[in-house]
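Notebook entry, structure prediction.
Reason for the run: the old model in the group folder had no record of what sequence produced it. Starting over properly, with the input documented here first.
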Amino acid sequence: MQSSIPTSPTTTPLPAASTAASIPPATAPAAERTGFRILGAISFAHFLNDMLQSLILAIYPLLKSGFNLSFTQIGLITLTYQITASLLQPLVGLYTDKHPKPYSLAVGMGFTLSGLLALAFAPNYGVLIVAALLMGMGSSIFHPESSRVARLVSGGRHGLAQSIFQVGGNAGSAMGPLLAAWFIIPRGQDSVAWFALAALTGMLILWQVGVWYKHQHLSGRNKARARPVVASPVSRNAVIGSMAVLLTLLFSKYFYMASFTSYYTFYLMHRFNVSVQNAQMHLFLFLAAVALGTILGGPIGDKIGRKRVIWGSILGVAPFALILPYADLFWTGVLSFVIGLILASAFSAILVFAQELMPGKVGTVSGLFFGFAFGMGGLGAAVLGKVADSQGIEFVYHLCAFLPLLGMLTILLPDVGRAKVKAAAAR
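New structure, fully documented this time:
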């Protein structure tokens, strides 16, 4: 079973990243090839990063029984991990907007590696909290700068680039439950240490991406090439109001998502009396739907407009969420898949929408939105853990079913496309 550790794919991305670093930017075709190769490398690194991060959530049943934890303590682990990332990511993004750090990508994966080893050999609950802290720091460094790289090589198709980048992370998150069910749970907590190999692979890929980033964008004439300052297509008050709406929508999305990522396995085991492995397979199907929805959301937003995607992906979940608590096991699986598919399409559209509202501040916006997403996920896990302890795990899904109704706030968002046209005409 040890051979199932996902280290073999390294042979494909490594040459891609290193080749990308050597391709001159003189011709348009080469630039296009470089863009997709770097996108592939950064997406694969995102896969490895989020796969490793998801192992914390995936082995919660093992940790709960091994350390005799309550749901509240489980929620505090998630809160520590995600609040760390939430607080640090906007600061990292703000700093790297002014001082890009291409090799910080590999450094972030190094923090994840340290947290992974702490998780594998944690003797008590306190060390589990430290492991969550280290892995949260890894995510806070990785996401803002890697999102910037995705935008740099997008060729103007920002939604598609963000979706390719995001789907790597979602696919990695989906792998966590499978790896937990097949490899970690049968062997015990210390088997997590084998996944250090995947973290080392990620560090090597990200170092290669950092080399490309430095040479293609931060050195020589590329560094000297000043980019014009682009104003927002809408007024300052509209930007502030729109950002508040977008963050509220992220709150509804990630608070609801927390009920699945942290407690879905417990819900299935309690309500339908299924095994841990069976529950993990259901969680995998939900997370696979999230990955599929992520890759669809960006390019659809490029074609039909991001506001329409945001409408459908948040409010569109509401009917399925309201039915879910009353469904049997089969329909719970079906509804969960549909919920994950629709809900996941929101993030790429929301992120690119926000970047268009604040052009020239990619790192700041990315850090803010990734950080807020992590924070809401962590807060959701902690609050819902407390609710589960006091009211029962089934009540959590009755309560969260109303969160997608906040999608109605999308009506307050401006039409950025029309605003751009008016701004261009005025100039």
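Summary: Confidence is low (pLDDT under 50) at residues 1-34.
The old model has been moved to the deprecated folder.
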